[in-house]
Amino acid sequence: MQEPTRILIADDHSIVSRGLYYLLTLHFSNLVINDVSSINALKKSLSATFYSHLILDINLDAESSIEELPSITTEYPDLKILVYSMASEDIYAKRVMQFDGVCGFLSKKADEQEMLVALRIFLNGGIYVNRKQKNNASASENVFLELSDTELIVLRKILSGIRSKEIAYSLNVTQQTIATYKTRIYKKLGTDNLFEIQKMAELFKLTSS
């Protein structure tokens, strides 16, 4: 008998996890599905149980899963990952697809038909990226594309209200290094006004789950 496909859903919204579970079990067979809602639970589940596929939200309980992708893809090289998020495809799709093992980026705005196409490709070992154009801004206009991966992580933490000391600790760098990142971020975005950056982040869906 063929081994079941083992899927871990990592999302901090239970309604999303339940919806994915329903869709997967309705349209696909021979699956074993579990779910987690935090980075800590994700790490524990991956270390305790074998999974062939991971459906991963960018935000997990106010933490960024993007920061964990390097270690996850290194420690579990055979794990196939589909990033499923409300965050802007223009900003994040190319970034997450740079990691070995990431097989696609799917927007939470996708309808059921698109989700099924993406899941089928993903479960069959293919690569899927949602390439729908955003109505409110094009990729060429997206100011956040100028930021490096680390600058983007720092900015997301700043916008979440995390203090520089805590950001430095979480990234294992000095507070001076965080100050340098802040300076670069403000320069690239053309403003030193955090309120303006918050408005830009809302426009480009930088902090959506």
What can you see in these coordinates?
- There is one protein chain.
- 46% of the residues lie in helices and 16% in strands.
- The chain is an alpha/beta fold and 209 residues long.
- The chain folds into two domains: 5-129, Rossmann fold (3-Layer(aba) Sandwich), CATH 3.40.50; 139-203, Orthogonal Bundle (Arc Repressor Mutant, subunit A), CATH 1.10.10.
- Helix 5 links the parallel strand 7 and strand 8 (128-129).
- Helix 7 packs across helix 8 (175-189).
Outline of the structure:
With 209 residues, the protein is of the alpha/beta class.
Summarize the SSE layout with pairings.
Layout (H helix, E strand, L loop, with lengths): L4 E6 L3 H14 L3 E6 L2 H10 L4 E4 L2 E2 L2 E2 L4 H7 L4 E6 L3 H9 L4 E6 L4 H12 L4 E2 L19 H11 L4 H8 L3 H15 L4 H10 L6
Parallel strand pairs: 1-2, 1-3, 3-6, 6-7, 7-8
Antiparallel strand pairs: 4-5
